[in-house]
Input
Amino acid sequence: MKIEIPIGARGSRDEFSSTYKDDFLIKNGLVHIKTGYIEFKITETKKIKEFTGWLYLVNTKYGLLASMSYKDTLTYLGHGIWDLKTYEPDKILIPEEDELF
Output
C-alpha cells in the first residue's frame, strides 16, 4: 500500500509532523531542519545557515518559506507543493483607561 498525502489535506504543521515520518515529508516538500537536509534544501539561496529545530522549510509555489510555529496551517496542493498560512494569535483586548475604574 502506497502512502500519500491527499490533495487538499489541511492541518497544523504539528499534525502533519506527528502523522507522517520526516523522510516522507521531505519527499513531499516539508523539511524539518534537524533532519540533516539543511544544505540540500537551502543551497538555492547560496547560503548555508544554522537553524534551531523548531524551524521547518515549506516548498510553496513562491519558493521555500519558513514555518516558525507548530500552529501554522498547511494545505497540501500536490506534487510536493504546499500552501502556508502563518499562525496569528488572537489579539488581546486591552480595556481603555476609563473602563478600568
Notes: The chain has a mean pLDDT of 78. The two ends are 65 Å apart (CA to CA). The first strand starts at residue 10 and ends at 12.
